[in-house]
Amino acid sequence: GAVVSQHPSRVICKSGTSVKIECRSLDFQATTMFWYRQFPKKSLMLMATSNEGSKATYEQGVEKDKFLINHASLTLSTLTVTSAHPEDSSFYICSAREWLLSSYNEQFFGPGTRLTVL
Amino acid sequence: AQKVTQAQTEISVVEKEDVTLDCVYETRDTTYYLFWYKQPPSGELVFLIRRNSFDEQNEISGRYSWNFQKSTSSFNFTITASQVVDSAVYFCALSDRDGANSKLTFGKGITLSVRP
């Protein structure tokens, strides 16, 4: 149980285009989803926290207009990288948390999406 | 503010050696949770263990063991008789007390290479 999927797993796009990444909880309802970014050989950095039906809370330094997050349902959150540039190339990982499942504060992680902007 | 320090960046061992990965944390909360994750080359995070701040019992799971010491704010991870498949990046993480939006703070990770 507690499976989180991400789509696509890998995407290559041209500079200036927008890219949407989907994060789905497959067998539970995710009341909270988190989006992380990981540069090569670096740690995971939290970008934003989103609760279903409300606006995402962004971490300091993360551009809200650049990284649009939508958590429209209890099983789906999307991250859209708008007007992507080469410096946005990174590994993006989502995680999901369901209040009842997460009595120990556990987040269930997706497999990640590798974005390359040419 | 919460902080997780993994002072070791890269460790290389020969198969069957034991290896300990260190983790030191900082938090002002009295209730918190500590985690270890494994990230193989594929990139997907693999959950290894969760420990809450009130449970200082050490834990053993097969070749893996964890030593939690609140007195030194450490949560170290030992792999006994390491294998090539253990090669990965290992992250220690800290979460504050339970709450809908409580966040995970990750250490920088330790790259473990196990040579045949």
Please describe what this structure looks like.
The complex is a heterodimer of chains A (118) and B (116). Chain A is mostly beta strands and 118 residues long. Chain A has no helices and 11 strands. In chain A, strands 2, 4, 5, 6, 9, 10 and 11 form a 7-stranded mixed beta sheet that branches. Chain A has a 4-stranded antiparallel beta sheet with strand order 1-3-8-7, with no helix packed on it. With 116 residues, chain B is mainly beta. Chain B has strands spanning 3-5, 10-14, 19-21, 24-26, 33-39, 46-52, 59-61, 64-69, 74-79, 88-95, 104-106, 110-115. In chain B, strands 2, 5, 6, 10, 11 and 12 form a 6-stranded mixed beta sheet that branches. A 4-stranded antiparallel beta sheet of chain B has the order 3-9-8-7, with no helix packed on it. In chain B, strand 8 and strand 9 form a beta hairpin. The N and C termini of chain B lie far apart (41 Å). Classes of the chains: A mainly beta (118), B mainly beta (116).
Give the secondary structure arrangement, pairings included.
The complex is a heterodimer of chains A (118) and B (116).
Chain A: E1 4-7, E2 10-13, E3 19-25, E4 32-38, E5 44-51, E6 57-58, E7 67-73, E8 76-81, E9 90-97, E10 108-109, E11 113-117
Parallel strand pairs in A: 2-11
Antiparallel strand pairs in A: 1-3, 3-8, 4-5, 4-9, 5-6, 7-8, 9-10, 9-11
Chain B: E1 3-5, E2 10-14, E3 19-21, E4 24-26, E5 33-39, E6 46-52, E7 59-61, E8 64-69, E9 74-79, E10 88-95, E11 104-106, E12 110-115
Parallel strand pairs in B: 2-12
Antiparallel strand pairs in B: 1-4, 3-9, 5-6, 5-10, 7-8, 8-9, 10-11, 10-12
